[in-house]
Amino acid sequence: MPHAAIVLNPEERLARRQLILRDAFSLLTLFLITAVIFVLTLLLFRSFTSHRQELGARWKTRGEDALRSGHPELAIDDLRSALAYVPDRATEIELATALADAGKTQEATSYFTTLWESAPGDGTINVQLARLAAKEGNEAQAILHYQAALDGTWQGNGYDRRREVRLEMARYLISRREYSPARNQLLIAAGNAPDNPAIKMQIAGLLEQANAPQDALGIYRVLAGRRDAPLPALEGAARTAFALGMFRVAYDDLTRVFATPASAQFSSQEKAADQFMLDTASRVLAIYPVFSLAPRARAERVLSIRNLARQRLNACASANPSGVPKLAGLISGWGQLPADITVTSLVQQPDLEPTILQLAWDTETITAQVCGAPAGADATLLLIARNPWAVEQQ
Description:
Oligomer: single chain
Helix content: over 70%
Strand content: under 5%
Radius of gyration: 41 Å
């Protein structure tokens, strides 16, 4: 049997309507209160986050300023405070760098190693680990990380950063007297370097330190051949040519150096060194039988060298009788040559020149070993004897 419909009287309908309105208003009020609380919470969170970012940036800036000004101890606390507000990988690297610069090697190594484990290809982290390994005397580990830095990724201009790392690695190898690998790294750097005289000069200077004057000379001479040749390039070319026994090149470049007004700004020590090389090169070229001389003038120089060498041999043998056995080969060699050679006969027999000159070079070299370093003209001949064929090399 169907239920009968409930019929409400007017008073009941009014009460029901009021109840519905009251509940709706309560729900609306609760919603508005919730919305206000949510907005207030969001605003407070954003304000707190913004304040944290601001404080983190402020501490980070202070730490970076302390690092740049050479106060890593102060930077450590500042950067730690920055990380407490805003954890950031770049700041972590700066903190580890500050630890390293402050001499906290073990702590810095631990910090960088942790960073390296999450990014083994990061160039900055690897070069810092290389420096720390070098400081601890761990050459194998240092080279490993330097190489990883060269092969790794860099923020910003990676091309320039890799070149800087390569030069730093070369300096480290030079400090370890590992000249051959240092030279290899420097030649790679030279091949990849931009057309920038300052960079080329830096590489050439390191090549000199790596006992590679021939390679350094090549760079110096390219720079010296420019219209706006840097004066240090001319001086570097002269210095390396002098070390190689290329006295013609050294003389020409030093003459250009002293003819340049800017050379007046050199220190007295630099001027003295350059003047010594110029004077020495002048003496060498004045005594050396250069091929451009007329036959008679050349023969005169050859005979002059012969006389000097024989006098040096006789003096050495007289002063050091115990060393005579070491001089026996020289004495025999000179005895096999004609004793009455004149300028005219030497012009007519030019094939004797190489024999005489080689005996003279050998005499100066061996007598220096037996009787000590010579002086005067013999000292000049000894310089030539070290590399006689380089004297006129261009």
